[in-house]
Amino acid sequence: MNRKLKTWLEILIVSTRLGLTSFGGPIAHLGYFHEEYVRRRKWMDEKSYADLVALCQFLPGPASSQVGIGIGVMRGGVFGGIISFLGFTLPSVIALIIFASLLHTFGIENAGWINGLKIVAVIVVAHAVLGMAQNLTPDLKRKTIALFTLVVTLLWQTAYTQIGAILLAAVVGFLLFRQQTNKEEQTVSHFHISRRFGYICLTLFFGLLILLPILRNLTSIQWIALFDSFYRSGSLVFGGGHVMLPLLEQEFVPAGWLSEQEFLAGYGAAQAVPGPLFTFAAYIGAVINGWQGGLFATFAIFLPAFLLILGTLPFWDALRRNPKIKAALIGVNASVVGILIAALYDPIWTSSIHAPIDFALASILFSMLVYWKLPPWVIVLSGAIGGMFISYL
């Protein structure tokens, strides 16, 4: 027992340090994890880490958080996965809950530096668009899938439209790419979770996805409505936290849970903290229902990630050898690019860039991030200062 406690404590300390220092988004997080867990501590070898990353890229949800959970599971069992998640996630959750309370207490949503953070959101998503487009739409077929998704999601802005576009892209991907996926070399990985436990987690994942909207329609309980919105958003996001933005915006802004101004102010602040971008949900929950709402929203949006990673680890080898599933995923990834471009335009661009000087600041910040390769915290700080400067003009 002492050995287990020592292992869990070690996982907590290491993951918390990563949660306090891991700026730069999911790809950067995977780099931090590789350095810490593979190179320094040698908790797993290169091949096992590559297999785990491949699985988490395959699943919807926050890839870096799921990798962290998987490493915790492999090191210290299911409880080790929970500890690893808490250490990596809680620092940014706490920071965003505090920001939400300050926003309400002092009415700072119209402050100049908040407007600067909104412009930071523009350039961060624009950078994500460029990187993902290069990787996920390298040929004309995938560019066409992305264009179709972009047009559809801009003209019909509902969560169901996005889900429908992703499903259609999966079908198209299966039809177009099922031959080429057979050519890739397969490897075997080993994850120590029973298949029975995996079945239970997957049953819970799909059961909640079906049951929660029914319960929401049958009752008028606010907490069920919140749980459904966050759980569904966490279940349907392929491509990382930036793609979550349009789902959450459609769930909460039109329904009046929070204003467009509050939504974008929080998204800007989420760029300023380390850890996963999915913790933006903690801010939304805190705006709606205080710190209890923030913790509740965090639980609801990350629960699908937990259920999926724990549910699929025992079956990963069979899934990754299936060319039909891999081909469908190629189409889904291309559609993610279209959703991301749509989100860049509306609501991010339309709510943040109002004048030539706003575009000038965005151009400077984009150059600092993409060409000068400055750290994300420098971009965030510069955006806040630039926004304050613009407000005095």
TrEMBL record:
GO terms for cellular component: plasma membrane. GO terms for molecular function: chromate transmembrane transporter activity. Keywords: Cell membrane, Membrane, Transmembrane, Transmembrane helix. InterPro entries: Chr_Tranpt_l_chain, Chromate_transpt. The chain crosses the membrane at residues 12-32, 52-73, 85-106, 112-133, 145-177, 197-218, 295-316, 328-345, 352-370. It is found in: Cell membrane. It is a multi-pass membrane protein. Belongs to the chromate ion transporter (CHR) (TC 2.A.51) family. This is Chromate transporter.
